[in-house]
Amino acid sequence: MTVDLVIRTDRVVVPDGGVHACAIAVTDGAVVGILPRDAAVTAEHEIELADDEVLLPGLVDTHVHVNEPGRTDWEGFASATAAAAAGGVTTLIDMPLNSIPPTVDVAALSVKRAAAAAQCHVDVGFWGGAVPGNRPSLRALHNAGVFGFKAFLVDSGVSEFPPLSSSDLADVLADVAALDALLIVHAEDADALAAAPACDGRSYAAFVASRPAAAEQAAVERLIAAARVAGARVHVVHLSSREALAAVNAARAEGVRMTAETCPHYLTLTVTDVPDGATQFKCCPPIRDATHRDALWRGLADGDIDLVVSDHSPAPPALKNLDDGNFGTAWGGIASVQLGLPVVWSAARSHGHKLGDVVGWMARGPAQLVGLTSKGRIALGADADLIAFAPDEAFTVDPTRLQHRHPLTPYAGRDLTGVVRRTWLRGHEVYSDTGGLLGEPRGRLLERVDG
Fold this sequence. Notes:
23% strand; globular; 6-stranded parallel beta sheet
């Protein structure tokens, strides 16, 4: 066998979650051989991983707010994809809101693709948006290759992306079902939030009380009822509460076509980690107490939560109200695309999980959600998107080493385990922890492929 690249290592995480000694052969950007470690292979480039490294498939992050164009001062394709590559994320799907225009019609999708062209360090796909009044655009967006549609059931925080009413939701789900598409939903209930005590100040406890778990549960139950009638495929984003998880499980048991995700911050942080005024921790739904965190870990262990993604949602420091620490008015969003793997792995190993479990949640699961069969696994014919990961190397998070636009993160100063040493995109090394980003951006813009 003569190939472009062969990587030899004592430890490769394969699709069934097992770890084996292998030689991974790559030609034309795809895996063409999974061979015994010392197999005779002639390659233009041969790499042998260090004894403390494991070869993983590149992660797939289906929940990233890139914000370009329109709010590129918040983030952008160059900076977001650089951070992704440094974090071992080789594919991301960009959310349709926070950019201007939002991705709610084909013209806006074209603007988004033009903005992304030639500056992406990893592969990038796009969600479309479902907002009041854009039903006539859904089929065209679907045909243009978006991976599904994002909707809010509560104020999104930006006026150009309003929430769906109950009647809007029913209509959109009927359209989504007719397309056999996917609707992904930010599930908090506006009435429940209006009834909760308001938050205006530095108290994190007051902020959590202003976005109670009951609001998430009510919205998930409303989504379930509408999806049941429509027969549509739906996905709950950033699940944070045990009650919402229980509702999802009950709906799936009765046959509702539903999946769910959670995020690193809900799995690793609790209210006791958030000082008053520390608005870098603000996100919606909020980080809750340990009973919710522990329920999410049980959901992952039992297979009730399908994937773990970042919900990378950065903003300029001024919008986080760092000066006065007012949780009521600060922008809600956590920047973490570069840190997701070590954050989750550090906690997962303490819960008795293996690297194969983390790969399932952060690579294979997200790829399956959006139908990217060539991503998220090391398998014959799959894209050679790979990570050399040192699972036992400890480090302390230094915000100055982060690649996203604003080095603000709730993980600053946190001790973590697991270092991404090298990242390959379709067999080309795009990042190393010693050399940084390597070469010109070679990420591709992806479209959904049915079947």
